């Protein structure tokens, strides 16, 4: 059972949002020397575009599946929990425990719910930690992709127990490393013009810039990305079973997929009367 299922319109909205994010991350690689590029200049525009795109995902989901108050409440609770986890590791060797919760939530609640949850959680966490800056819209997109990817993993109905935890731990480690890789692409153009072998050079061929980028990642980022991946694996293997059961129990009790049904009235109720009772018994007779 999923809180949010992907329908045609919500799928289109997710694809458009992801394509916009890819363009925002990758366009500096195609810029020429005279572009004067800096992500600090285009980040406000990306943020202004991201919010209505996230709203479009939610609205499209409502149109496709009837997202109700229970799903919105679930989104708020999990986003608050993710935001509360972020300060626990922010600024400490890349340790970010919120990755573990975003992966498990996306697994249980689906890719559409996961994408919105990841972006909203990152935004709320930035407000708590004072991490608001030109990097924030890029973080929101990337975390949305992390949680959405967990919802696309195979074996939703059949894979349980240790095999599922192992799958989620591997995915969490890979996504934590890729998160750092993608976010480096956002910050890397800032060092353009420093003249080092790992600097971004506007106008250079894409292949040469990518080789410098990989050298930059190896030299500066792995010390943060590897601890993030290891923490995600440890939390998933130790606490993942409990959290998965809690999320699935809450989803079952919320009955997101059920629709209200009303029983047809009996002959007495249609006439405006009351059910008859048997002699000596004040309880209504069962029909």
Automatic annotation (TrEMBL):
Keyword line: Membrane, Transmembrane, Transmembrane helix
Q: For the region Disordered, give the residue spans.
A: 259-287
Q: Which Gene3D superfamilies match?
A: 1.10.1760.20
Record's keyword annotation contains Transmembrane helix: yes
Q: Which chain regions cross the lipid bilayer?
A: 12-31, 43-63, 69-88, 108-129, 165-182, 229-247
Task: List, as start-end ranges, the regions of compositional bias called Polar residues.
Answer: 274-287
The superkingdom listed in its UniProt entry is Bacteria
Q: What is this protein called?
A: ABC transporter permease
According to its UniProt entry, this protein's organism is: Streptomyces cacaoi
